[in-house]
């Protein structure tokens, strides 16, 4: 339909509507219906029919429900863009809000709230008040959501009229479960938005996560629709249970939700279970066992899409607790009908769960996929075989398989395999003999991909003694220098040629000259620089050059993982969300304003400065232990310790600059943080990364570990488990010397007493310190100190808890003497 | 909560569009469609159901050749959104009888009525077909079901001459029938999707049955129903060892690894006598999903022979045997064999007197396709194919061809032996005796024979 035609049609419609407006003729409703349908169908395909607004409204004075609803739909769509016209509708909508039929009341109220017009806000307040008190559940459901809509149009008129409080009341009292659910989601959104609008305190929101509310919700969980159950379960997952008995009771009630056919309900339940048991290692393990079967059932029932959402979560859990799923490996075999995005996840899971007992079967299966028609999956499969080989199980057999790949003579298979064989050799030099024999047979002409070429060149240089024709193969590469497009390959070639020269000089000196000349003339800066470096080194003497270019090397023990364990923990915190599907924490894919609050869990839990530490108790809101050590495989544990070694606060959090909820400042080594976390000036010093830590041996009787490591979750767990062994009162000699906590922190740190968290405002500061007895095994021999100081009076008090109470007196002396030194040093 | 919901045709036209939050730009449908259509990535990859473009998350499910899409800017549960989209599609089908582009276009006002009640401000409200009835005032315009493709849901269950009322599965829950009186009936369908992988020696490497007991009720007054399953069902025992073939349980037991149930199902008597009690809501819904890795007899055995027949020639012989009773007939049995990349020509040789069989060589991806419209239980069929290759082979030709994959539908047959023994109204009355249908169908999911 061209523009003119359309215009004509609209004029026609307008006239017809106008004629019908006042008509009471029999059958007129049917004609109207047809016209309305036409208008709405135009609206759907994106034609602007707003010019019919007044005619549509005039016609809507009708008792015909179908017409009414179409009119509501139309008005809702255009009111925002035409606020003046929207005013026309207020009258009949308000009238309908008082209709006898509850359905009409509800429909009218919903349309009224959906107008999204600022200057009509005043007309909403009355009907909303009435709606929340309506005797009919449907109307109250609509009203609860209406309050949220009002908040989005005008936050102040929502809060000024006390709507949040009314919602809270309905939440606790309403007999209709859907009303309760709508109150819950409205309140969550409103409280969250209010927090960022005002002081950033999440006190209101957290009031939803209290025992009384949570119990109320759990006890009537079956009254809710399945969608509302998801909402409720999500809220429950934010609740911190006070003791194991409570957790068990909650899990008992929710247990049968795991048998639900709706995957969203099951995943939400699993999240609750996982969170409730975080601090109970063995129970946590049992939860994994318990959820295995339901998850596998959900993966295979339902549509491909639903299955994808579930399998993404399964993937996360499998990677966290591979041993639990090791016996289920056949479930992760790829099916012919699986889409490639599912196959990829399955391959990663198979790689993760391979162990002594199933490696042979898994690798056999993966080898089948290597011949797959789907090239992308074939490649992934070969990489998976390589990764399993690097995990050390049954390397012997795997190497044989890899070498068989090379015999398949498919270019992409050869390419992937070469890269893997290279990695394998770096880890298991002892396999060189077998590998090299086969790699030597690979025709260098069939290798075209840069990564594979570089791998081949590296092997030729490294194993020049074993491969007789290595110099001649490399010579071929050097001769084709100009045609080689990849700088990566040219760099590798320079190194390989130089290495081979050290080993077999007579055969390679000519080639070395040619390679260096070509390298020096190379347009690529890195290639040029490397050629020059080698040239200069060789000028210094062959031996010196060899020591630099080809020093004796050690086998690589663990290859760096692509994703850090912190990131993986963040994703686990966001279980049952898009973060799991994307395999990225939400701050990486959401706009700033949609990120919501930073959930203070695990490592960040102890640091909510302003609101929590002013109380005399530890923040109980987020007591969640880190379950890392429970479930990680041995190698990962090693790696995560390594990570901690870089400073336990070296958590690379989101870019928080410009984030406008200042309160729950997550620890981050991002310097811009200090500008937003005004209440916690000490935070970037907390990072403790840059201090030249000079451990001073303090007391002969008790030696402390220079750089003790303790993650916040463990600190919290210990703190809640241990009792106060000693309370020390001390008056600081130079109280005025403490305008901010940093100097004291640095001082204590220099004496091997680390700070876990600090907070407060002058003159009153509060710190949590910890220290560890030197030479004690990991995670034992800790001292935990809560230290409160008033800087104006100098009076301080320290509460000490310890793993080993016998050492407390010694530590107390040391602590006080360290304090005494503060200011004098 | 979601920001928008829309339904697109496969050409990218907006059929239904609803904006709930106004925080995602209007052009989102177009952005989505381009992204799905031109999904970048390695060859043959399709767009995943969930992706993010410029901070907007797009989630979609494909149903009846239509794309059901939701957008959001917040980090919500993907399972919830995908389940919701699936549910919207199902509820719509309940009301329209048939779900396709045509029926949606003819009934879009009714669909808007449904959507308004199912989602408010982006939050799911009620999605029960039953509860929505009181809010829907438009009469559905019923689309002619006869124009549906022959393999539509109605055709699934047709077994020889035992023809069930074909209109049943395409009937709207609200439409009145020509006679004015509603036909009182309830359908219980046992749908099993089977996956089997045979290794090159013909042994079963893995097998699984994913089953659903689906109910579609057109009963008025919501009477309570008891569904009785065979009482030798045992649940959960096979799960622990997983794939322990023939292990545990009594002889002839039906061992389910795990199962889940619809909200409305009460399991009071389930442990005792394997009956499910429920008051079926209107519309179509799964009563129970189950999964089984217990060994079962695969319905088809395939004996492939692939061998060289000279320097530029090879031969593929496929023999299929139907291992099920002669009273049963499988429909649309299709075998696909990827051939060596160097294959240039294939000549086929069907057995004499073959009826309803077709063969094809898909040049583009070098796949041989053999389709048998019907295969009667107990019968055997053979196909010979002579390949012409452009290159002399050096490596084993077997590695270049296969694996063979197979698709089929077998009505009134189920591999698991799980059965619905009875379907009773709890309150029996002489005057009220609705039609009750129990139907079985077995579908291939991933049926692979390695070479």
TrEMBL record, chain A:
Subunit-structure text:
Adaptor protein complexes are heterotetramers composed of two large adaptins (beta-type subunit and alpha-type or delta-type or epsilon-type or gamma-type subunit), a medium adaptin (mu-type subunit) and a small adaptin (sigma-type subunit).
Name by which UniProt lists this protein: Beta-adaptin-like protein
Matching Pfam families: Adaptin_N (PF01602), B2-adapt-app_C (PF09066)
Q: What is its main location?
A: membrane
Q: Which organism is it from?
A: Sphagnum jensenii
Q: Which UniProt keywords apply?
A: Membrane, Protein transport, Transport
Q: Where is the composition biased (Low complexity)?
A: 661-679
Subcellular location per UniProt equals: Endomembrane system
Q: Where is the Beta-adaptin appendage C-terminal subdomain domain?
A: 702-820
| Similarity field | Belongs to the adaptor complexes large subunit family.
Spans annotated as Disordered: 636-679
Q: What does this protein do?
A: Subunit of clathrin-associated adaptor protein complex that plays a role in protein sorting in the late-Golgi/trans-Golgi network (TGN) and/or endosomes. The AP complexes mediate both the recruitment of clathrin to membranes and the recognition of sorting signals within the cytosolic tails of transmembrane cargo molecules.
Automatic annotation (TrEMBL), chain B:
Which UniProt keywords are present, listed alphabetically? Answer: Membrane, Protein transport, Transport
Enumerate the subcellular locations listed in this protein's record, separating them with semicolons.
Endomembrane system
Presence of keyword Transport: yes
Main site of residence? membrane
The protein's matches in InterPro entries, at most eight in alphabetical order, are given as: Adaptor_comp_med_subunit (IPR050431), AP2_Mu_C_sf (IPR036168), Clathrin_mu (IPR001392), Longin-like_dom_sf (IPR011012), MHD (IPR028565)
Residue ranges occupied by any MHD domain in the UniProt entry: 183-450
Q: Name one Pfam family in it.
A: Adap_comp_sub
Give the matching CDD domains: AP-4_Mu4_Cterm, AP4_Mu_N
Q: Which family does it belong to?
A: Belongs to the adaptor complexes medium subunit family.
Protein name listed in UniProt = MHD domain-containing protein
């Amino acid at each position: 339909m061209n523009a003119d035609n359309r215009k004509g049609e609209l004029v026609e419609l307008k006239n017809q509507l106008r004629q019908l407006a006042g008509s009471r003729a029999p059958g007129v409703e049917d004609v109207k219906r047809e016209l309305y349908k036409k208008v709405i169908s135009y609206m759907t395909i994106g034609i602007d029919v707003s010019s019919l607004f007044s005619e549509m409204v005039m016609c809507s004075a009708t008792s015909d429900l179908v017409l009414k609803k179409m009119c509501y739909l139309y008005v809702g769509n255009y009111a925002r863009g035409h606020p003046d016209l929207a005013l026309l509708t207020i009258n009949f909508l308000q009238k309908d809000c008082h209709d006898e039929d509850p359905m009409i009341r509800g429909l009218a109220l919903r349309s009224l709230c959906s107008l999204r017009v600022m200057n009509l806000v005043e007309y909403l307040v009355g009907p909303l008040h009435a709606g929340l008190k309506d005797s009919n559940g449907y109307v109250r459901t609509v009203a609860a959501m209406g309050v949220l809509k009002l908040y989005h149009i005008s936050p102040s008129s929502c809060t000024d009229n006390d709507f949040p409080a009314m919602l809270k009341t309905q939440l606790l009292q309403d007999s209709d479960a859907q009303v309760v659910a709508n109150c819950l989601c409205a309140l969550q959104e409103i409280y969250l938005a209010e927090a960022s609008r005002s002081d950033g305190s999440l006190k209101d929101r957290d009031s939803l996560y209290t025992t009384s509310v949570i119990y109320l919700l759990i006890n009537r969980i079956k009254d809710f629709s399945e969608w509302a159950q998801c909402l409720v379960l999500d809220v429950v997952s934010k609740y911190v249970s006070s003791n194991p008995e409570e957790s068990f009771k909650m899990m008992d009630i929710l247990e049968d939700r795991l048998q639900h056919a709706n995957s969203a309900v099951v995943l939400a339940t699993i999240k609750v279970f996982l969170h409730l048991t975080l601090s109970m290692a063995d129970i946590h393990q049992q939860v994994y066992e318990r959820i295995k079967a339901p998850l596998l059932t959900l993966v295979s029932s339902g549509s491909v899409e639903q299955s994808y959402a579930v399998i993404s979560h399964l993937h996360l859990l499998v990677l966290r607790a591979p041993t639990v799923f090791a016996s289920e490996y056949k479930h992760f075999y790829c099916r012919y009908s699986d889409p490639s995005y599912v196959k990829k996840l399955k391959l990663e899971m198979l790689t993760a769960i391979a162990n002594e007992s199933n490696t042979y079967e898994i690798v056999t299966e993966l080898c089948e996929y290597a011949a797959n028609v789907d090239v992308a999956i074939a490649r992934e499969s070969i990489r998976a075989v390589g990764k399993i080989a690097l995990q050390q199980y049954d390397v012997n057999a795997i190497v044989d398989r890899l070498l068989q790949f090379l015999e398949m003579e498919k270019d992409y298979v050869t390419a992937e395999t070469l890269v893997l064989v290279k990695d394998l050799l770096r880890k298991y030099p002892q396999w060189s003999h077998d590998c090299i024999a086969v790699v030597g047979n690979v025709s260098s002409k069939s290798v075209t991909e840069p990564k594979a070429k570089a791998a081949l060149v590296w092997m030729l240089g490294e194993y020049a003694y074993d491969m007789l024709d290595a110099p001649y193969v490399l010579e071929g590469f050097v001769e084709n220098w100009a045609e080689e497009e990849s700088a990566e390959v040219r760099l590798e070639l320079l190194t390989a040629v130089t290495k081979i020269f050290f080993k077999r000089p007579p055969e390679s000196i000519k080639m070395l000259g040619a390679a260096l000349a070509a390298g020096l003339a190379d347009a690529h800066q890195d290639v040029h620089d490397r050629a020059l470096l080698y040239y200069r080194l060789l000028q210094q003497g062959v031996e010196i050059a060899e020591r630099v270019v080809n020093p004796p090397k050690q086998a690589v023990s663990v290859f760096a993982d692509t994703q850090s364990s912190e990131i993986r923990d963040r994703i686990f915190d966001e279980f049952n969300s898009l973060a799991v599907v994307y395999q990225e924490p939400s701050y990486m894919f959401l706009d700033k304003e949609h990120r919501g609050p930073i959930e203070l869990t695990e490592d960040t839990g102890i640091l909510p400065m302003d609101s929590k530490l002013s109380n005399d108790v530890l923040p109980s809101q987020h007591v969640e232990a880190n379950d890392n050590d429970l479930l990680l495989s041995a190698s990962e544990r090693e790696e995560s310790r390594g990570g901690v070694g870089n400073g336990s606060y070296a958590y690379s959090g989101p870019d928080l600059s410009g984030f406008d909820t200042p309160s729950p400042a997550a620890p981050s080594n991002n310097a811009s943080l200090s500008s937003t976390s005004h209440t916690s000036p000490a935070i970037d010093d907390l990072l403790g990364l840059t201090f030249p830590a000079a451990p001073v041996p303090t007391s002969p009787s008790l030696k402390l570990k220079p750089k003790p490591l303790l993650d916040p979750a463990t600190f919290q767990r210990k703190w809640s488990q241990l009792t106060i062994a000693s309370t020390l009162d001390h008056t600081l000699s130079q109280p005025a010397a403490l305008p901010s906590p940093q100097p004291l922190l640095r001082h204590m740190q220099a004496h091997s007493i680390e700070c876990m968290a600090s907070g407060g405002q002058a003159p009153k500061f509060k710190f949590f310190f910890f220290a560890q007895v030197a030479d004690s095994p990991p995670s034992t021999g800790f001292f935990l100190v809560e230290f409160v100081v008033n800087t104006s009076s100098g009076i301080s008090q320290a509460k000490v808890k310890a793993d080993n109470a016998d050492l407390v007196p010694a530590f107390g002396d040391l602590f006080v003497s360290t304090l005494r030194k503060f200011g004098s040093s | 909560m979601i920001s928008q919901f829309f339904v697109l045709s496969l050409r990218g036209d907006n059929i239904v569009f609803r904006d709930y939050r106004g925080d995602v730009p209007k052009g989102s449908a177009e952005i989505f469609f381009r992204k799905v259509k031109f999904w970048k990535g390695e060859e043959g990859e399709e767009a995943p159901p969930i992706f993010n473009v410029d901070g907007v998350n797009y989630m979609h499910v494909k149903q009846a050749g239509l794309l059901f899409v939701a957008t959001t800017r917040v980090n919500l549960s993907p399972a919830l959104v995908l389940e919701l989209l699936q549910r919207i599609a199902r509820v719509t089908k309940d009301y329209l009888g048939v779900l396709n582009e045509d029926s949606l276009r003819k009934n879009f006002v009714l669909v808007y009525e449904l959507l308004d009640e199912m989602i408010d401000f982006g939050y799911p409200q009620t999605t029960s077909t039953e509860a929505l009835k009181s809010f829907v005032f438009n009469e559905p315009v019923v689309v002619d079901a006869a124009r549906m493709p022959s393999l539509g849901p109605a055709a699934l269950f047709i077994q020889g001459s035992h023809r069930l009322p074909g209109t049943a599965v395409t009937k709207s829950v609200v439409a009145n029938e020509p006679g004015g009186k509603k036909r009182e009936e309830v359908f219980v369908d046992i749908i099993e999707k089977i996956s089997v992988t045979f290794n090159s020696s013909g042994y079963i490497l893995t097998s699984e049955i994913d089953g659903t007991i689906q109910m579609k009720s057109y009963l008025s007054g919501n009477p309570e129903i008891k569904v009785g399953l065979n009482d030798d069902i045992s649940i959960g025992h096979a799960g622990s060892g997983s794939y322990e073939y023939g292990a545990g349980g009594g002889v002839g037991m039906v061992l389910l690894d795990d199962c889940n149930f619809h909200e409305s199902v009460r399991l009071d008597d389930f442990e005792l006598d394997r009956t499910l009690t429920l008051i079926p809501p209107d519309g179509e819904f799964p009563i129970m999903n189950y999964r089984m890795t217990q060994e079962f007899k695969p319905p088809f055995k395939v004996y492939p022979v692939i061998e060289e027949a000279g320097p530029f020639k090879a031969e593929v012989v496929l023999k299929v045997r139907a291992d099920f009773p002669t009273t049963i007939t499988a429909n649309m049995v299709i075998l696909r064999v990827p051939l060596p990349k160097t294959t240039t020509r294939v000549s086929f040789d069907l057995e004499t007197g073959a009826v309803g069989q077709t063969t094809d060589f898909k040049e583009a991806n070098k796949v041989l396709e053999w389709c048998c419209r019907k295969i009667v239980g107990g019968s055997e069929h053979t196909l010979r194919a002579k390949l012409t290759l452009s290159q002399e082979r050096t490596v084993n030709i077997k590695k270049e061809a296969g694996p063979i994959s197979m698709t089929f539908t077998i009505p009134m047959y189920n591999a698991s032996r799980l059965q619905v023994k009875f379907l009773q109204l709890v309150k029996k009355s002489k005057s009220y005796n609705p039609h009750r249908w129990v139907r079985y169908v077995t579908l291939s999911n991933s049926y692979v024979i390695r070479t």
